[in-house]
Amino acid sequence: MLSYIGKRLLTLLPTVLVPVIVVFVIIRLAPGDPAAQILGDQATPEQVADLRRQLGLDASLLAQFGAFLKRLVTLDLGESLFLHAPVRDLIPGYAAVTLEIGLLSLVLSIGLGMAVGMLAAFRRGHWDGRIGSGIGIVGISVPQFWIGLLLVVLLAVQLPLFPVSGYRPWSEGVGPHLQSIFLPALTLALAQLGIVSRLVSSSISDVLNEPFVTTARSLGVRPRRIRVRHVMRVVSVEILTVVGLLLATVLSGSVVVENIFGIPGMGRLLFDAVGRRDYDVIQGVVLFVGLFIIVVNLVVDLLYAVVDPRVRYGKGAP
Amino acid sequence: MNSIGTPPGSAPPPALLEVGGLGVEVVGPEPFSAVRNVDLTLAPGESLALVGESGSGKTVTASAIAGLLPPALTATGSIRFDGKELIGMPAHQRREIAGRQIGFVFQEPMSALHPILTVGKQISEALDAHFDLSRAQRRDRIAELLDLVGLGGGRDIARCRIGQLSGGMRQRVMIAMAISCRPRLLIADEPTTALDVTLQKQVMDLVTGLQRQLGLALILITHDLAVVSETCERVAVMYAGEIVETGPTRAILRNPRHEYTQALIEAIPRIGDTRRRLPTVAATAPNLRDERAVPADRRTASGLVREAPEHWVRRDSAGSR
Question: In terms of domains, do B174 and B208 share one?
Fold first, then answer.
């Protein structure tokens, strides 16, 4: 088991480097650089060139990347030029906010998605089943910034249940804190709701055709019990496999949502860093998110073996 | 209706199952009958083999009796179990019979058993559907059932999932589930087809042993006439959705009257067989005799004609679809 985890991590490390390399190159190809940003409009080209040299931005792309890797080996992610702090120390604070909202949205989207998907599959052909599959299609089609703004209008402006924007840390009290993160999490969740519910309902339809469902019927098991105990048991295992994918979309969605709601999370940090060409922050965040997604997917794979005894990782496993 | 299943002239024993004029229609854009005019009777404790090739309607007939037809199929006619009409019975009443009165053993234990629930939990599902057992009673009953199907002792099978069991063990678990509520009728749909040849006899012996031990009536679906001769008292041969010949096993095997039955028996390989090529069953069974030639008093509503006191053969539109 341990060797399996080790092997998986080793094979996955190059996967993390790919997005980092892509981002590394693209931000340097984009017009504007940190030196120009720091010095502002008034700076002379000589001043900019000077600062570029100081920051090491005049070197070739390859040399810059070499320097980046060299620092990376010692776990040094560089320093933010605007926040004046090492990237390594910056990320945890922002990541904690994003992950908290991300987890809450994951719970919401899986819970709501299960409910809607079950409605669509078990009540197929009935009016409530049609509503269920309708929600699924709408959820897939509607962009999340629109959902977010709609929620703000409904639940923050029309019915002032939640703050319009802003983040309140735990230190300001549990109630205000949860209030401030609920709408962003709900926005992210509703964006996933379509995918999750469609997945749940198609998985249910598949499982309902399995012979073991007929067996349960032949034993006189009640339909509701067949659904809950026999069908959903298998479906929930299948849903677990997409949790890793969902988390990835939650993290990318956080860039939009954190900007709508003014949340100081990783999405916001990344967005601002791109605007300011804060290279080290951008690279650091991309690396962190990549690593995080890989670790989560690994954990999901391992959990999969726990909940589904048909899967056992061993000698023959990949 | 009652008299249809029982050929006139024979003293009808108190029947457990009486199927009369059963038809199963496939609804949809191209409707057709999967099964027509099926008459069967089964006394308590009696065993009947339903024989025929794939697609002859054996499984559909059994599914109709067990109430397991898929939504696209509807049954017409009459299925009386213990005096109660099953066709048109409300679902909740039907559920009280399913598992409790009629147990079903499926062909493929691997897919017919739940992949994640443990064996013990799956058997509990059957028990809980019909009885209100305490935890200890349930555990004892499960142990007793596993013992009964030859899975007692050694490792605790109740805690296993089917993935951890061999094919033969899985089918034993399937049988344990089917008999868990002590049904009065056991329907076994080709219970040994998915098994290794060496296991087939073991599992067949288990089924017939349990049948005698528990006094179950048995409907065995098979295409293997060799198995039938050892296990069942009566045989019904199905062809193209109809019963073409029915009677005591010995009479059918020794003196088959319908051409299709004769072809099936011809196709059984025997030790010392010198034939280089086994005969195959012809695709269509022709009419053996014109229906008008049969005196009316020897015909039944379903077109079966009495050859001997208990031996009935179809003489009308056999093979026509």
Answer: no
Look at A225 and B125 and tell me if their CB atoms are within 8 Å: yes
In terms of pTM, does the model score above 0.90? no
For chain B, the average pLDDT equals 83
pLDDT at B293 over 70: no
Q: How far apart are CA B312 and CA B303, in angstroms?
A: 10
Closest CA to B309 of B27, B7, B2, B4: B7
Same domain, B208 and B259: yes
Measuring CA to CA, which residue among A133, A91, A95 is closest to residue A116? A133
What does the pLDDT look like over A144-154, one tens digit per residue? 788 888 888 99
Say if the ipTM goes beyond 0.85. Answer: no
Q: Report pLDDT for A190.
A: 87
> B112 with B66, same domain?
no
User: Which of A212, A229, A308 is facing B112, going by the closest CB pair?
Assistant: A212
> Do B177 and B192 fall within a single domain?
no
Please name the member of B68, B161, B163 whose beta carbon is closest to the beta carbon of A217: B68
Give tens-digit pLDDT for A295-311. Answer: 888 888 888 777 766 65
Q: What size, in residues, is chain B?
A: 321
Nearest alpha carbon to residue A291 among A25, A16, A9: A16
In a domain, B242, yes or no: yes
Over residues A116-144, mean pLDDT: 87
Give the whole-angstrom CA distance, residue B97 versus residue B81.
9
Structure tokens at A124: 């197929």
Question: In this predicted model, what pLDDT tens digit does every residue of B124-152 receive, in sequence order?
Answer: 999 999 999 999 999 999 999 999 999 98
| B234: in domain | yes
Note whether B114 contacts A309, CB cutoff 8 Å: no
- The answer as to whether B321 is a domain residue is no
CB–CB contact A220 B104 (8 Å): no
- Looking at 1.10.3720.10, 3.40.50.1360, 3.90.1100.10, 3.40.50.720, the CATH number of the domain A87-307 comes to 1.10.3720.10
Cβ–Cβ contact B89 with A under 8 A? no
Pick the closest to residue A295 from A248, A228, A234, A259 (CA basis): A248
SS (H, E, C) A58-89: CCCHHHHHHHHHHHHHCCCCCECCCCCCEHHH
Q: pLDDT, tens digit, for every residue of A36-74?
A: 888 887 888 888 888 888 888 888 888 888 888 888 888
Two tokens, residue B114:
């739940």
Measured CA to CA, the distance from residue B22 to residue A291 in angstroms comes to: 64
**Can you tell me the distance from the alpha carbon of B16 to that of A93, in angstroms, rounded to the nearest whole number?**
74
Distance, CA of A68 to CA of A286 (rounded, Å):
14
pLDDT at A246 (0 to 100): 86
The pLDDT, as a whole number, for residue B261 is 85
